[in-house]
Amino acid sequence: MNLISTQTPTAELQALDAAHHMHPFTDAEGLEAKGARVITRAEGVWLQDSEGHRILDGMAGLWCMNIGYGRDSLAEVAARQMKELPYYNTFFQTTHVPVIALSAKLAELAPGDLNNVFFASSGSEANDTNLRLVRRYWQCKGQPERRIVIGRKNGYHGSTMAGASLGGMGGMHVHGGGIIDGIEHINQPNWWSDGGDMSPEDFGLARAKELEDKILEVGPENVAAFIGEPVQGAGGVIVAPDTYWPEIQRIVDKYGILLIADEVICGFGRTGEWFGSTTVGIKPDIMTIAKGLSSGYIPIGGSIVSDEIAQTVGAQGDFNHGYTYSGHPVAAAVALENLRIMEEENLVSYVKNDIGPYLAEKWHSLADHPMVGETKIVGLMASLALTPNKETRASFASDEGTIGFMTRERCFANDLIMRHVGDRMIIAPPLVITREEVDELIVRARKSLDEAYEQVKEQGLFVAK
Ligand SMILES: *Cc1c(COP(=O)(O)O)cnc(C)c1O
């Protein structure tokens, strides 16, 4: 076989990719016919592909590239750490300097008594840890029957068995034969699609109340924890009404149930605070972290755990759980450098006080587009609902996602990465995006919406269900 490089012709790369690479969440045959887009370089918020297109990455990779592409110091830190100590484990009473420093830093950044970190290499793995950890906690408390964890439909907690089971994506539950036992789901707080005639405030309370109903249905003495994303990401950037989270907090407190905030997207500045829990005003017992922790430069995730849980579990011998790469020294060193840059450049405050409000104003201006219903944004994660009727909040008569997909294809054609979830369009750009780049993002988004709207009308698809 010839040496493969970025100089290899695109068609040849695509053929090899189709022959040997299984893509996540992808229709392989469909992709083979079309050929995958080959990304070769990136700088700041800009990607470059093998055909020389310069693409504005409105999704920060997969919600992770918080500090932007092309930061040399992360590469330098990784190289230095690889030379000094490329690997050692943290099992069997050993540790190393990068994992000590990162744990202490995370304890400092995390709110309240979340002072203890159990490391993994991804968000999914961290949620696996959480499922076992909360069940172990209740065993240690002498209440082993508390093993049910309640999540939400259309929530996303990863793709391992535990991650997919805690999440509420029906399509994922079907592939692989069901979910782990002892996991229940309640409805999501999506007012636009499910709110009917209720005010957002009443709807938020009603959806939170479903948690209490579910707890009473299965028996409070059997419930270990509730898990949710402060703002649902992969589900379509669903922002709960203001009434929702205070009511959830009240309910978990009332029944003494642990609260797990999945901060994999919301953490590390995405919502304008270090953690989304602060933004929505909740006090979790465990936070899941990954993605922005290293800005995607290297795989690392983890669980930040309260003193109460860590001490209770720690006082009862081994917790029989861990990964070869828990607290990997190179990953820990890179994550630390990422956090150092975030602090040095005041990126969290930049999102909260500067670029977040700037993007919000521009994003909401898209609401005058004939195909756009609600526009939602928290920090630098935003969504808009496509609809054939803004007044009734109708969905399209065509299969869910048809119009969203058509719009996303126009975005790709206009060198903008904006994703669709069903018929919602979503963005989550790198936190370092400038005002000029936001302007460019909005120009390309509007152009793509215009083109999609023309297509939708031409094909007779601008029709309500
Ligand atoms: C991406 C994501 C995960 C899974 O993280 P991976 O690193 O892909 O395993 C879990 N929870 C949320 C909220 C996510 O967005």
UniProtKB/TrEMBL annotation:
Name of the protein this chain belongs to: Aspartate aminotransferase family protein
UniProt KW keywords: Aminotransferase, Pyridoxal phosphate, Transferase
Keyword hit for Transferase: yes
Cofactor annotation: pyridoxal 5'-phosphate
InterPro entries in UniProt: Aminotrans_3 (IPR005814), Aminotrans_3_PPA_site (IPR049704), PyrdxlP-dep_Trfase (IPR015424), PyrdxlP-dep_Trfase_major (IPR015421), PyrdxlP-dep_Trfase_small (IPR015422)
UniProt xrefs under Gene3D superfamilies: Aspartate Aminotransferase, domain 1, Type I PLP-dependent aspartate aminotransferase-like (Major domain)
A GO MF label: transaminase activity
NCBIfam families linked: PRK07480.1
One Pfam family of this chain: Aminotran_3
Family: Belongs to the class-III pyridoxal-phosphate-dependent aminotransferase family.
